[in-house]
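Progress note, project year one: complex with fe (ii) ion.
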Amino acid sequence: MIPITPSGNCMGVDVHGVDLSRPLHEAQFLEIRELLHRYHVLAFRFQDLQPRGFLDFARRFGPPEPHVLDQYHHPGFPDILILSNVVKDGKPAGLADGGTYWHSDYSYLPIPARATVLYSVQVPQVGGDTLFSDQELAYEELPEAMKKRIAGMVTLNVYGNRDDLDLSSRTSAPPPTQEQKDRRGATLIRHPLVRRHPYSGRKALYSVSGTSYAIEGMPEDEGLALLRELAAHSTQPKYRHSMKYGVGDVVVWDNASVLHSATLTDPAHPRTLYRVTTKETQPPSA
Ligand SMILES: [Fe+2]
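Model obtained:
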């Protein structure tokens, strides 16, 4: 058994005794995947990885899907997105302030993200935590009447942050260029409001915040009001976990069962992370 330390919140564990710079046996990986589905967010502290080794580990969770904003891809490994608030010679070293609102990765794509995997390269003295919110527990604790009401509902999703459409704001999603939009991410995508986990079969609220702006078959304002009500419920402090990074930490989260939000960083405190986002093998099912 791989030793773990629970975070003390409703989810999240530190995983011990695994050196990710060495090849993982299949049995060891399957145990790690089980931990992910049970605890939703895993942290492997103090790892020492090269980009290729990091990518090899991330690939175990599914095929990587490079981010739509391709100007921030790692030069040698386009499957790795560089998240950074560092500016070198007037050019951003990576995507700064990405996803500072509650969302599930790639919920604007027909086949969204499975696991997101981060490797912490440079840690700021203050800030830079990632917040998570447990959407399985939030669903479980909904009143039965609400569970009945939302059963079978479908959300409509587009790229971006529905609650901040001011593109000059640091909490809106950085807009893709027309060419990037043409390739991906500009179409209306339908997803079940309550989805089943592809491995455990447990039900969770899905994409109630971030990219969803309407519910199919409902007037737009009514659907949005219901989504906001569900998001307010599902991001209450009792469902949350906050991740603090140290240099070398590898963090994995399960996009089928959590919402997450980055927090704004102060450019005076440099921060750099590598990110690989892996895809589901099929669209989410109700
Ligand atoms: Fe994200």
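The first strand starts at residue 4 and ends at 6.
The chain has a mean pLDDT of 93.
No further modelling is planned for this target in the current period.
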